[in-house]
Design a protein that fits this description.
By secondary structure, the protein is of the alpha+beta class. Helix content is 42%, strand content 23%. A six-stranded antiparallel β-sheet has the order 1-8-3-6-9-10. Strands 2-7-4-5 form a four-stranded antiparallel β-sheet.
């Protein structure tokens, strides 16, 4: 059940494409140099030096590195289900690099303290669909396509080209992540109530989708959160 990670600096080669992949542990990526495009559950972002992307537990994304290579620092974050800003900026990335070399937990605390949220993201038609699919009651994809004057097949193809996943599956994962976060944060809510609030037909459907996303059923996550009283370790 433990979810661990370690601070690390990585170099992403120019013009490279990293296919969609999932990270079990939450972490923040600080762009130290260069730039790239990332498309995930919070939308599609074009980032450069000083930008920060926050990746919650069980998030998935694909990356496209731009004309020059990029260097990034990844810092693990607490496994507590908090809904942090998904994008922001920091004024002094080098300070975080130095602190992460000594103590990654302190680096995570400082990052969250100095992060200036930035809500900007790409806004093409597939990006607007991604945003709407993250609503508590997401629209039907066919109806959304019809309202926006585009065939569902064309919209699905464009969405897959940018996000490397079909919009229907993207929607399923968004709902399961929202349900997981509610499970670990709202311990007084019953699983049946959470299933209803998150738009599931019943509790068994909630269990199936949360297990598929996280590898463990809701009851296990509820016990995990209770045993730690929301004091999750970063690794």
């Amino acid at each position: 059940m433990a979810v661990t990670a370690a601070a690390s600096i990585s170099r992403l080669g120019a013009l490279a494409t990293i296919r969609r992949h999932r990270h079990r542990a939450p972490y923040a990526t600080i762009v130290l140099s260069g730039g790239y495009e990332e498309a995930g559950e919070s939308g599609r972002h074009e980032v450069q030096a000083g930008d920060v992307l926050i990746h919650p537990p069980f998030s998935a994304h694909c990356d496209r590195i731009l004309r020059c290579s990029a260097e990034v620092l990844d810092i693990p974050l607490p496994m507590d289900g908090q809904d942090w800003p998904r994008r922001g900026r920091v004024a002094d990335p080098d300070r975080l690099v130095r602190l992460a070399e000594r103590d990654e937990s302190l680096a995570a605390q400082m990052l969250l303290a100095v992060l200036v949220p930035d809500e900007s993201r790409c806004d093409d038609l597939p990006d607007r669909l991604a945003r709407d699919l993250d609503m508590a009651r997401p629209p039907a994809i066919a109806a959304w396509a019809d309202r926006n004057g585009i065939a569902r097949e064309t919209l699905t193809r464009q969405f897959r080209q940018l996000y490397d996943v079909a919009p229907a599956h993207f929607r399923v994962e968004l709902r399961a992540r929202r349900a997981w976060r509610t499970i670990v944060q709202e311990r007084r809510s019953t699983l049946a109530d959470i299933a209803s609030a998150c738009g599931y037909a019943d509790q068994p459907q909630l269990t199936r989708e949360v297990r598929a996303l996280t590898g463990s059923p809701p009851g296990t996550w509820r016990k995990y959160a209770t045993s730690r009283s929301h004091s999750f370790k970063t690794g």
